[in-house]
Prior knowledge:
By secondary structure, the chain is α+β, with helices and mostly antiparallel strands. The strands form three sheets. Strands 2-1-6-5 form a four-stranded mixed beta sheet, with helices on one face. Strands 3-4 form a two-stranded antiparallel ribbon. Strands 7-8 form a two-stranded antiparallel ribbon. 19% of the residues are buried.
Amino acid sequence: MTMTxxxxxxxxxxxxxxxxxxxxxxxxxxxxxxxxxxxxFESGEVLMVGYMNAEALKRTIDxxxxxxxxxxxxxxWKKGGTSGQVQKxxxxxxxxxxxAIWLRVSVEGNGATCHVGFRSCFFRKIVRQGDGRVELIRTxxxxxxxxxxxxxxx
Length: 154
């Protein structure tokens, strides 16, 4: 992965500036990544969690569209680049110690985010059954789209 420094990001400074100041000083982990929680701008529903490196965060800020670093493919990806479900960024926030990003987005195309066809990647909840088993139960009954129609057999 190529690391890029950016004039958008200040060097990490003192605790007070990081926690309450006005300069963006993201804390990337040892792999150069920062977690990005993505929610629907209107409803607040959690859509997905992705990872960004400095360049993906810069591209997101510069273009107003969500970019991520794929840990499995080791490449940049613009969300919706293949599917048309582009995430238009309405607001970007960071947490108090600047080690996480929150993207509030509007999703284009059919409005889905999950690559397996559901609106949200969090389409199942964990439920403990009476006999002690743990099961995943769908919270979204139907898929928004068939992934084979968008991605083929990948």
